[in-house]
Amino acid sequence: MKEAVSISGLNVLYHRGHTAFAAVREASFAIRTGETFGLFGPSGCGKSTILKALAGIERHWSGAIEVFGSPYRSGHGLTAAQRRDVQMVFQDPYASLHPRHRIRRILAEPLVVNGIDNPSGRAAEALMSVGLPPDVASRTPNALSGGQRQRVAIARALLLRPRLLLLDEPTSALDLSVQAEILNLLNDIKAAYGMTFLLVSHDRDVIAHMCDRTAEMSEGRIVDIRQRADDRPPLVPT
Ligand SMILES: Nc1ncnc2c1ncn2[C@@H]1O[C@H](COP(=O)(O)OP(=O)(O)OP(=O)(O)O)[C@@H](O)[C@H]1O
Ligand SMILES: [Mg+2]
Fold first, then answer.
1. What is the whole-number distance in angstroms between the Cα of residue 120 and the centre of ligand 1?
2. What is the pLDDT at residue 3?
């Protein structure tokens, strides 16, 4: 099967004052198409930095990145096709949505920018696919709960029908019961659309419940890659 993601010898340097510091060091791994691949490790170990490089947000890296066989160019943005294929859901649902824009506008914007027909119809469909009622469209993010907001962020990421979804702690800001709902929703969506997931979490239970394989990071390095055990544990004991 073709690889969805191939990263080899990835380094990302940041500057702290006059000294350079490597947030990601010689990271190499591949994600198979259709897989849910986890990135696990303590705060500051470089998880989000890898996702940002894959999302084209962090452009200053060295090494090699390929997504669905298409190479990234260090120092450049993604191509239009790469941007459609790869979408990211951010750690913080409060920060990732414009607080004063109505949900209708938040969802329609990426469609309009990409010249896609019937943006309002597609936006309504996206809300339905994440289990939100149509009246949410006329509300603003600050009139929604944290769980509803994260559903909107997921709906927005799905609008362009990406093949790879980058999920950066998509549920860490949410209550345990809402967290389980969103994770189950993500699994349903993945099955329905046939996507590949890269999921970041520092929660072992979330990783164990969701991921086929998981890379463990420490201080910028990938220190272990593991296949999940066969009996996937439920997230919330029933
Ligand atoms: N733009 C930046 N400039 C300088 N340093 C940065 C920048 N972004 C991240 N860092 C540093 O790089 C390291 C890795 O950060 P990163 O956000 O990837 O960690 P993380 O594993 O996602 O942590 P968390 O679990 O807290 O989200 C950290 O030490 C962080 O302080
Ligand atoms: Mg992070």
1. 36
2. 94
